[in-house]
Write a structure and sequence with these properties.
Elements (H helix, E strand, L loop, with lengths): L7 E4 L2 E9 L4 E3 L6 E3 L2 E4 L4 E4 H5 L3 E2 L9 E5 L22 E5 L4 E3 L1 H4 L4 E2 L9 E4 L6 E2 L11 E4 L4 E4 L13 E4 L12 E4 L1
């Protein structure tokens, strides 16, 4: 696994040129997983090619509490090829269009960043309790949009009937060095569906 000290790397998704580690505080679209990112990244200026730090350093396989039954294997969905079937991330429910992890046995797909979501976290709007990432029947309401969480995967408080949809979790958070974020398949910031987690 690469560390921050590796300022120049070669990556299989961009064999033409080496990628430089840059510390910019700007938004970008990752050319690995195709999700939005903010801040530090690996970049090829020649090709305008960017990778999230994690997409550049993610292992070929991993285990996750999100899918504890089997190991997940890194794959790449080729957007130029014929897509015999479309895959959606089992965590954020957005399409996978590039780098992702897959369990072929269970047809479980997850973006690299979604695979890194912590099982427990906190949010400034509900700071007095730890929130747990979970799905399943719930009477909890989202702190941000006030809609019920129902069966959706989200961060839920185990001591109250409150929680956050993944889409709503970062509506009050600003990107920065302690935030990992992903985005939607769309474009402008006003319609941005994204997530961020304090790590």
């Amino acid at each position: 696994m690469l560390t921050v000290r590796d300022t120049t790397v070669r990556h299989f998704t961009h064999p033409s040129h080496p990628l430089q580690y840059v510390t910019w505080n700007t938004q970008f679209r990752c050319d690995g997983c195709k999700l939005l990112g903010y801040g530090n990244r690996y970049r090829c200026d020649t090709c305008d090619f960017d990778l999230h730090e994690y997409c550049c350093t993610c292992p070929t396989s991993l285990t996750s509490f999100l899918h504890p039954t089997h190991q997940l294997t890194r794959e790449v969905m080729n957007p130029q090829g014929q897509r015999d079937m479309e895959h959606k991330c089992n965590v954020c429910r957005m399409f996978v269009n590039g780098l992702f992890y897959r369990c072929r046995e269970c047809d479980f797909d997850v973006h690299p960043l979604c695979a890194q979501l912590p099982q427990h976290t906190r949010h400034p709007q509900h700071a007095h309790h730890v929130l747990r990432l979970q799905a399943g029947p719930s009477v909890a309401s989202c702190v941000v949009c006030a809609e019920p969480l129902s069966n959706a995967l989200g961060y839920r408080c185990e001591t109250s009937d409150l929680g956050f949809h993944l889409k709503c979790f970062n509506s009050t958070l600003r990107p920065g060095p302690n935030i990992i974020s992903g985005g939607d398949d769309g474009g402008d910031l006003n319609s941005l569906i994204s997530w961020a987690v304090i790590i």
